[in-house]
Write a structure and sequence with these properties.
The complex is a heterodimer of chains A (about 325) and B (about 325).
Chain A: H1 10-35, H2 51-58, E1 66-69, H3 74-79, H4 84-91, E2 115-118, H5 126-139, E3 145-150, H6 157-168, E4 173-179, E5 182-183, E6 186-187, H7 188-191, E7 207-213, H8 217-233, E8 237-242, H9 260-267, H10 271-283, H11 287-311, H12 317-321
Parallel strand pairs in A: 1-2, 1-3, 3-4, 4-8, 7-8
Antiparallel strand pairs in A: 5-6
Chain B: E1 3-7, H1 8-22, E2 26-30, H2 46-54, E3 55-57, H3 62-74, E4 78-85, H4 86-89, H5 93-100, H6 103-106, E5 116-121, H7 136-139, E6 146-148, H8 153-165, E7 170-175, E8 182-186, E9 199-202, E10 207-211, H9 215-228, E11 233-237, E12 240-242, H10 247-256, E13 259-262, H11 271-282, E14 292-294, H12 305-311, H13 315-325
Parallel strand pairs in B: 2-3, 2-4, 4-5, 5-7, 6-7, 10-11, 10-13, 13-14
Antiparallel strand pairs in B: 1-8, 6-12, 9-11
Helix pairs in contact in B: 1-8, 3-5, 9-13
Classes of the chains: A alpha/beta (about 325), B alpha/beta (about 325).
Chain lengths: ~325, ~325
């Protein structure tokens, strides 16, 4: 493992542990709530297994930076500091949700956190990231945009147009591919001529940030820290983080059972396990008590989020018509 | 108010110039807008005055032009993106419809998207099927987007300026055939044609001709012909397809009790369909005849000039339609 080049503080790693466990439990609870019909609709794409990538990358950003992603968005919003209560309320379709109950699971955004969403058309948010990054150059401010890209999204035209444009204009954007091996049910091998997706950077004359271990929060943090510095000064970078989703693509995914071997391989590199081992190495087994306290705290936080969502009012007929236009 | 007699092309150019000088956040982006001076020469000289920061020559990437405009608008810039003709805007349809029109609503008002998309539209002198369309009604189908199409130089200036100053996404289409057509234009930096305001171009009490864009010229020419035969036709220019201001049409219809809709676009699920539906719904007690529609024929436009012209509307077709219901 090529980590520990950075001197991590105990507080920092405990904070990340908290975020990762919070996302894990939030998502597990979400699935239960979906099956209990508390969360409605047909879409719920959970982030279990991919937490290290979201937490490591988002925590490498500055407050003035921008984050944008696709529909597997709850975990990234949590990592960016969005209140889990308001995310859960959104998934319940409640008025207190981050998007007033109008966006649902796939449209989690918080403008005050510069977390711009949560988009449900595959690849559709990539040119938005290009545009957000244009602002930094236009106003000459140090703001970097982090754009998450599913492996599946690398195959539609948005990827090509958005990345090329960002290279032409040297925009400060980090294109972070979350390669969880499947776009819905189709494997990367079945969908991409070049299966090492980061290599596409070459086609755009863009810096190739390589392929990283997306299951280790410290690896991701270090890669994105360097990428942020590079992007701010020079222009875009494409990075591919290898990760795995423990659940299906969405709640409708029935193919998932066939992937047991793969799952156990990635489970051995679980983001929580990997980080726990790092901390035990660095701080000794004394840390275990603190980790347990964090896990207990997370249980309370998730329970509070669910309770908040349960207790919140539903949107009204008037809300149906509000915010179509300014 | 002082007026100058200038072409619609120059009226649009003046509108853009004035707004870019007025507001530092306004920038233009599109294919050939800079070094080429604009495909339709609306942006000639802009690169010299404003430089590459505010005049962005974009790659042939309609999806990314639209998406980058949206993204930059979400974070505070005020883009005026140009897509060379509306035929190519179909490539950007997902951005305009699934993103520009929905972002404010999906995230319940957390963001606004103050962007303008300019596109040339309409029949283009044997430009053939994929380059000769007038599909504004398709774009006007979706709440969240405004859609306008000026019929003359004066409105072109006022509508474009209103669009740039508005905080919502606006698609403004510009009829290619009208670019060189001169008309009186107020020489006033604050002259605006408000979004969603239609205009009575000519009063009359026998029939109401309802049009937008180039249809207004055909309607006015038909009204001249009809006047010589003692038929007094009113002409209403709707200007904006969304928001659709039917108040002037209804007021006129109460006097005339007859209506002919004139449009360059296709007849099925069209502008004419909508106007006719609204009249029968809201004005049933005033109706003395069916609403007639004059549009392009229901065919893709061919190359050969003779049969191409047969497919298009003209003033005589409007006169004939009026005579059918008098």
């Amino acid at each position: 493992m090529e980590t520990q080049t950075v001197a991590y503080t105990r507080e920092q790693l405990l904070d990340w542990y908290h975020q990762i466990v919070l996302i894990r439990r939030f998502e597990e609870r979400s699935l239960d709530l979906y099956h209990d019909k508390k969360i409605g609709g047909v879409y719920l794409h959970v982030y279990n297994g991919q937490e290290a990538n979201g937490v490591g990358s988002v925590n490498a950003l500055q407050p003035q930076d921008h984050v944008i992603t696709a529909y597997r968005d709850h975990g990234i919003a949590i990592a960016r500091g969005v209140d889990p209560k308001r995310i859960m309320a959104e998934m319940f379709g409640k008025k207190t949700g981050v998007s007033g109950g109008k966006g649902g699971s796939m449209h989690i955004a918080s403008a005050e956190h510069r977390m711009w969403g949560g988009y449900a058309i595959v690849g559709g948010h990539l040119p938005l990231a290009t545009g957000i990054a244009m602002k930094a150059r236009y106003l000459n401010v140090d703001e970097v945009t982090l754009c998450f890209i599913g492996d599946g999204a690398t195959n539609n035209g948005y990827f090509h147009e958005a990345l090329n444009m960002s290279a032409v204009w040297n925009l400060p954007v980090i294109w972070l591919i979350e390669n969880n091996l499947y776009g819905m049910g189709t494997s990367v091998e079945d969908a991409s001529g070049q299966v090492e997706l980061h290599k596409r950077a070459v086609a755009y004359g863009m810096e190739d940030g390589g392929r990283i271990d997306g299951m280790d929060v410290t690896v991701v943090y270090e890669a994105i820290t360097a990428a942020r510095d590079y992007a701010s000064k020079n222009g875009p970078m494409l990075i591919e983080a290898m990760t795995y989703r423990y659940e299906g693509h969405g709640v409708s995914d029935k193919m998932y059972a066939e992937r047991k071997d793969e799952l156990s391989k990635f489970r051995n590199r679980d983001p929580i396990t990997v980080l726990t081992e790092h901390m035990q190495q660095m701080f000794g087994n004394d840390i275990n008590g603190e980790l347990e306290r964090i896990r207990e705290q997370v249980e309370r936080e998730v329970a509070e989020a669910v309770q908040f969502a349960e207790d919140s009012p539903k949107p009204t007929y008037e809300d149906l018509f509000s915010n179509i236009y300014v | 108010m002082a007026e100058k007699n200038i072409s619609m092309r120059d009226a649009l150019r003046n509108a853009l110039l004035e707004e870019m000088r007025r507001d530092e956040r306004v920038y233009i982006m599109g294919q050939e807008v800079g070094k080429w001076n604009g495909t339709h020469k609306v942006t000639r000289g802009f690169l010299d005055e404003f430089g590459e920061r505010r005049v962005k020559d974009a790659p042939i990437s309609e999806m990314a032009i639209a998406g980058a405009a949206i993204g930059s608008a979400m974070v505070g810039l005020r883009p005026v993106a140009e897509i060379m003709t509306i035929n190519f805007a179909f490539l950007a349809f997902d951005q305009l419809i699934n993103h520009a029109a929905k972002i404010r609503y999906m995230f319940d008002g957390q963001m606004k998207v103050p962007m303008v998309m300019r596109c040339a539209t309409g029949w283009g002198n044997q430009a053939t099927a994929s380059h000769s369309q007038t599909p504004e009604p398709i774009f006007a189908h979706f709440p969240g987007l405004y859609v306008g199409c000026p019929s003359n130089a004066r409105d072109a200036k006022g509508m474009l300026k209103a669009a740039i100053r508005d905080d919502n996404p606006v698609l403004l289409t510009e009829v290619i055939a009208l670019y060189p057509k001169p008309g009186p234009v107020p020489d006033d930096e604050d002259f605006l044609v408000p979004i969603g305001k239609s205009e009575l171009k000519r009063d009359g009490d026998h029939v109401t001709l309802v049009a937008y864009g180039r249809g207004v010229d055909w309607a006015l020419a038909a009204a001249d012909v009809l006047a010589k035969e003692g038929v007094r036709a009113a002409v209403v220019d709707l200007r904006w397809l969304r928001p659709l201001d039917m108040s002037v049409v209804f007021e006129s219809f109460k006097k005339t009790n007859r209506c002919v809709v004139v449009e360059e676009s296709l007849p099925t699920f069209s502008f004419g369909s909508e106007i006719a539906a609204q009249i029968q719904d809201k004005m049933f007690d005033y109706m003395d005849a069916p609403v007639k529609r004059v549009s392009s024929l229901d065919v893709p436009l061919p190359f050969a000039a003779e049969i191409e012209l047969m497919a298009l509307p003209n003033a005589q077709k409007v006169v004939d339609a009026v005579k059918e219901i008098l």
